[in-house]
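## tool: complex_structure
## caller: assistant
## args:
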Amino acid sequence: MKKIISAAALLTASLLPTHVSAFCGFYVAKADTGLFNESSQVVYARNADRSIVTMGSDFKGDVKEFAMVIPVPVVVQKEQVKLVNNSTIKHLDAYTAPRLVEYFDDDPCMQMMYSKATPAPPMAAPVPAKTRAKELGVTIEAQYTLGEYDIMVLSGQESTGLITWLTENGYKIPQGAEPVIGSYLKQNMKFFIAKVNLKEYSKTGFTQLRPIQVNYREKRFMLPIRLGTVNSTGKQDLFIYALTPKGRVETTNYRTVKLPSDLEIPEYIKDKKQFANFYRDMFRNQVEKEGGAVFLEYAWDMNWCDPCAADPLSSKELQELGAFWVKPEANNMGGGAADAYVTRLHVRYDRETFPEDLMFQTTGNTGNYQGRYIVRHPWQGEASCPAANEYLNKTAPKQQDEAAKNLAKMTGWNINEIRKQLPKLKKVASTTSWTE
Amino acid sequence: MSYLSRLDPRHYQLTVQTTLLLWGIWVLEFPITWQQILAVIGTALLTQRLFCYLFKLPNLLLSTLNTSLSVLLLLHAQAALWLAVAAALGIASKFLLRLDGKHVFNPSNFGIVIALLLTSEVWAAPGQWGHGLWLFLLIAGSGLVGLVGWRTMLATVSFLLAYTSLLFLKAWWLGDPWTIPQHQLQNGSLLLFSFFMLSDPKTTPAHPLGRVLFGVSVALLAVWLQFRLFLPNAFLYALLALSPSVFLFNRWLNYPAFEWSKPITKPEETP
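## result:
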């Protein structure tokens, strides 16, 4: 019933006996990043030593207050930076989000009744005085305005000078950042800083700031997270969507763990709010269990999905997100873009559990994985054969209990509380005779 | 003690490796299939058998199994083919790449690194052990030191001391908290490499001083590869690159070569 079959298998389903009609269930809901407050999102396209990193922006305050300070391994010039549409990242989020699917049990008396498999639809800042910078041992390596942002790339000899410069120029640097900035400078990292240029922003007509994308060549396949842990305001959520030509991405200095998936959970979780609660608590529970691990939420070839939480991204969208190797004509086949593989990683980090920056590697693993949860609707019709008796009295209650246990195990919720929410299942007298 | 001294350290190694493999598959969800296990062990045994027949040498079952399990624990691939190739390359290197009558490379190290260089279909996953298992590995590794004697394990001990010092030195220079080098050291692959690959007495210098110098050189090169060239699994490459220098150490420091059949505990402790 739950066997995952490939797109090719789906297309040829009509040639095969009806058994293959079992597929991944009907898609009902997704758990996108909106569930997690204060989360950040990064799209990291990587091919050989080229990195294209897009930093998703969920900035909701006054744009005047917006300031971004990010360590980068090289000086990033204007032609290496571009702005991306928020909607493209949202699409990638929706496509890769953990999903809920549902099955409807059939009347056990109606043999060989199969639901018809539906294949996935066709896929379709004011310029500071350079002299002051020099006094403080800070070098402005590059400076430009791009769209609504004033951007600078700084290098420095020591952290105190750089912090003084940043503070004088209106960047609020949290207490305790000094050693971290110093460490990055010694590792020959530069600082990419951005502020909103209000005049340019009013010209763009956008109501939300657009994500910034930087593009550079560098052997290091890493994401600096240490600055984010300086403000010990608790744990933060980070979503990384890694795009590669072929294989899955994993962390080399932390364990990459698959979230529990493909498990049945009770029917009432189908409610959107309940599913959100379920996913949040399941994630929290897994974080507590696994400690400093990075969680895999999705890993899939971008040509297809099954079931789809959203259509696969088009070649144009993938290219916009940095997958420069994707050929534009790939769309002509009626499928999504070829040659792109996405890995969605979810990290909940703080200084204690994630002392080091995240280091990655691309692996040869092209296997598919998705966070997928199933609600099964039991058949509750009139029993007209012994099989229905068996189903109503044994199979359905057993399935319901298993689903409740799965839910309790994944989320840490109280099993008795879960059982209270389960609908009462129909039972029949076992003495009923079916012989006439 | 008498039992311990009679126990071949390769049996001990095999026990630890098997435990780790089972733990990895059942608890840590390593992407290892039974087909891969069969392919790797089968290919290694066949290759060993073939070369023993060609070179008219006795078959060494234990070492072959050690090599197979090292490949399975440290290297991953989707299909079994490349893992089998790595195992075959490792075993073949024992017979074909020899200097002064000794094989140059640790067989699993050779097989793993050459496979990594040849294809992107395989990968080594240094993060896969998480940080929960390192204590077990440290204890298991220390058990090996107790079993074969610290002299035999000098390359491992000096490597670990040098590597640890370098990581702490780096953190001190960068002004990083100690949790960073600690985290880097609590790495299952690193300990597995140190205790069950670098410890191979046949492919490390015979003289104790040579072993110490060799271990330190591997640590220096590994740190350079890891933090200057940003190479993941740097220690595997460092060992491979430096293995050809072992014969120079042996010519310089004349010392009887290690034999598995000879007593492996410290001579004074042998009853």
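## assistant note: The longest helix of chain A spans residues 386-411. The mean pLDDT of chain A is 82. Handing back to user.
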